[in-house]
Amino acid sequence: MPERMSGRKPRTLIAYLVLLMSVSLQSVVGSAQSTPELSNPELSNPEPSIPEPSIPEQAISKQAIENGWDLTDLYPDITAWEAAQKDVSKQINETTQCRGQLNINADTLGKCLQSVSGTYKNLMRLYTHSFLAKDTDLANSALLERHTLAEDLFTTYSEAISFLEPELLSIDKDTLNQWQKSTAELNNFDFLIRNTLRKAAHVLPEREERIIAAASAPLRVASSTYNILTNAEIPWPEMTLSTGEQIKLTPSGYTKNRGVKDRSDRKAVFDAFFSRYKNYQQTLAQTLTGQVQAQVFEARMRGYPSALAKSLATDNIPEAVYRTLVTTVNNNLPTLHRYLKLHAKLIAIDDPHYYDVYPAGADIDRQYSINDADQLLGDALTPLGDKYLQLYKSSVGKGWMHIAPAEGKRSGAYAMSAAYDVHPYLLLNHNNDFDSVSAFAHEWGHGMHSLLTQKNQPFAKSEYATFIAEIAAISHELLLFRHLSEQASTAQEKLFYLVEELQGLRGTFFRQTQFAEFELAIHEEVEKGGALSADKLNSIYGATLKRYYGHDQGVMYIDDVYTVEWAYIPHFYRNFYVYQYATSISAAYYLMDKVLTGGQKERQQYLSILEAGGSDYPYDILKRAGADMASPKIYEAVIKRCNQLMDEIEIILKSS
Ligand SMILES: [Zn+2]
Question: Separation of 470 CA from ligand 1 center, angstroms?
């Protein structure tokens, strides 16, 4: 699950760091280590034979695989990087000359905004280089030091431009409107100005702003205490599996082992892991309370009606989006229950308990080279049209990827597109399994989004919001799933892809909405004057969990010890973040459904979202493209797909 967001960086960097997130369906599901037998493993009836694909041309050369990405597209050598660093430093200094000047006249405002924006663009290029370089060799001190220099420059920049917002807000609104009409230099900044003015009502007088800024360090203590406690101080249990394997159940050790094949091992993993949280539940309840209180405090001080309203205001997302998501999922819980029953059947269990959620429901033995991944994705992207496909094909072989796993290289996968007039870079750790193919598809979704944004938007409007950032990446995954299940050569292979997609939907759509519902409930509890003890958190979380998993209807039994699961989710310290996993996947399903069943118009509507970049509010960009995220039909598209997948799976199971 993506966890690469920094709360301390200024908003502008956060928008870029979003591109580093990887909300791969696979990663949310977690890696099931082993796969149980199907109730009937003899699924050998081949599908009607499909013509052998012609031998693909190898778009990604052996050299590109071995050499990794080509950073000389950013700077020819380190001397050039160092020269650029000095230049950016000088430019930052020059932007401070704009302090106190913004309200003089339109011309000065235009020049100052261009100077700030140009500096930022150069800074991001510098940052991209040092960021990427260090990630291929994390033990290399020289690379880490260079990146620290870029980060320091970033801090200097943020401090230098702190005058921007208050000075813009000090200009009379009518005057600003007049200036925008008469000054071409302000054209690229229309959205920035509109967005800044929108927040005016919640910007406080200078002294009060200083108080809030000074309070931010103590307000972060709850969250940092949680991190230290769970990462360093809780002595995580160790155990021996029935295979003889010794494991340590840290949070990541648990994620790795929660789907083990042997059922009594699985139960032992769950029991040991969640019992340990139980031992610390009063402290963990305090840290979560502190986090919630910090959000409620800032919302009240800034005059927002609630912590949710404050959080959604960042990207101007209507509250109806959040509430419609939760309501629609609740109205469709029978679909989740249908899935849980089907999954229990796939793993041959009659009385599913919560510890039975993770084992994979199907398995195949297939390897995918990086060129297989490219070929499969290329075929899968056909519905997005020739122009899109050509752009992908002309990009994939260009040395923008760092493909192979290596000692000291960062794990996981991301796309980094912060160097505006260069191109995206993709970090992969391709090891020929299915997760590698879906990560490849996902990251190229980010890459294509950035390419289309940068082709169509000036730098000042190229940063797209978190709310929109995952849609292209997930759309790639969906198209890949469809293509793979359509071209599967055996029933077993087809079953595998259908089940994988379905498992992803449980983990991203249902589970993240369940988290979002809990997160809202605990904030509302504090807002109405309630207290959050461990018992109260277990009870709120437990009630939601049991409702989602059909505990009372006998769908899945939730043992009481697992209601402390809230303590395991670090995302509750990220301030109404998780709902965006569910909205992103829903938007992707809704839009891809329209693309696959529609024509030229629907395709162009989808592409318009990617081309829009950060030129408007994300909700408005999506709504203009025909996806009103406050409408239940967006979320119903996922429900429809879930049921479709289950229909297909049941047909395969029946005919086997
Ligand atoms: Zn992503």
Answer: 5
